[in-house]
Amino acid sequence: MLRAFSNRNYRLWAAADLVSVTGTWMQVLGLNWVVMERTGSATSVGLSVALSTLPAMVCGPWAGALADRMSPRRIIVVAESLHVLIALLLALTVWAGLPLPVLFGLTASAGLVGTVEGPALGRFASQVVPRSDLGNALAWNSVVNSVGRVLGMSLAGVLAALLGEALLFCLNAVSFTAVIVTVLVMRPAQFHPLAVSTPEFAGVRAGLRYLRTQHVLLVLFALGFVLSSLGRNYQVTMAAMAEGPLGAGPAGYGTLSAVFAVGTVLGGLAAARISAYTMPVLLATAAATSVLQAVSGLVPGMVGFALMLLPIAAGAVVIDTVKSTRLQLDAAESMRGRVLAVQGTVAGGAGALGAPALGWLSEHLGPQEALLLAGAVTLLVTGVAALVLRELARRSATAPQAPAAEPALTPA
């Protein structure tokens, strides 16, 4: 269960990740609540979320091609430095009460930097553990991220009430600095290098040609898009439930966010105990989570809704862990950055479309009805994905075996 922690570089990376995620979620909570407080609109919160993810839809493939050709450490150091600057500018914007368009512009800038950094982070995380420990490392990454989310949300509520939201962005800038220092002090000799693309297999077009032949990966992308857009944008629906049917206000939103984070910790621990990250595990968890989401809005009271969030959040982490493991292990090493970039693009599209859509549904149909409709759609799509994957497996079993056309590789 603790295999990944036998690697020194991973222990350092996990510690830095905990600090960074804590700061990030402090900023997320502060940003979402500043927008909700100024506008009183769940749609505006959805727009803020969309602006942070929209760059991934446009720039993701190029970020992946860059990660497959350059040192991920170099990309991470530059990107984290830019995150420090943007966080400080956000703090100044909130403190000075500058107009929302300024806030939205900085949010989009942070999303753009995160898009460029994302595939490099994925490749770098694969280099701090051997291939056999990758699934376990991804599961523990989820635990670390969840613990950081709990800490971030909990601290954010207290600090924002005492000292104001601007402080949250300053602390996030400090957390990015911790990542830069950690990356620089790691031991390169203990990395597990991945192959990089030769020039003839580099670039966005080569990556897209490769993905067209990987039908299972394409199904995972499609399923992930639906689950993320309608089943994972709880930032919007929790805010709408807290402001509307539950009548809990900002304190209730913070409580629900913390409960959701606790559920992700439980999900990460469950994922770390999984011995094989297989498609049946992914599909069964997606189906169960969809059913729970559909009925969550119908459970009366703040306590009832919070209790429903626990298994939903846990299931979301198991889904992400299995899906990410399969995407990385089933893809060629020289294409992993571009596969991760497409995954980021899919997630960006899900946020850009799903968050405003859920906000609109919450305002016009009601938050409870929005949860019911979204859960029903994700359950239907999960069933369709199961049928398609079964058909692909049947065709693969009956097709004559031919040597796989693997992209040319160059040692990192």
Automatic annotation (TrEMBL):
Q: What is its subcellular localisation?
A: Cell membrane
Q: Where are the transmembrane segments?
A: 12-35, 41-63, 75-96, 166-186, 215-231, 251-270, 277-295, 301-319, 339-358, 370-389
Q: How does it sit in the membrane?
A: Multi-pass membrane protein
List the coiled-coil residues. Answer: none
Keywords on record: Cell membrane, Membrane, Transmembrane, Transmembrane helix, Transport
Q: Major facilitator superfamily (MFS) profile domain: from which residue to which, for each copy?
A: 1-393
The GO terms describing molecular function are:
transmembrane transporter activity
- Major subcellular site: membrane
GO cellular component, alphabetical, reads: plasma membrane
Pfam assignment, any one: MFS_3
Q: What is this protein called?
A: MFS transporter
Species for this entry: Saccharomonospora piscinae
